[in-house]
Design brief:
The chain has 79 residues and is mostly helical. It has 3 helices and no strands.
Amino acid sequence: MKLTQKQKVAAAYLQAYTRAMKALKDVENSIHDNPAPDSEIQIDWAHVGDMNRIASSLEAILPEKAQSEEKLAVALPTL
């Protein structure tokens, strides 16, 4: 049976949706593989770099959202 255009679009969308949800779960797992801020584990600059890389990548997906969040962000104290 030949698929209609509507069926092809629906199948392609389902495939893309499934791929995006898997990537989202993988990112979440990557974040959780790092120590939590209140963890007993000694946080080092490599952990900071990992979190900044993940955050930057996510912000690049939705730049408008990131820009509006920056306007609302509270400045961090200088360490």
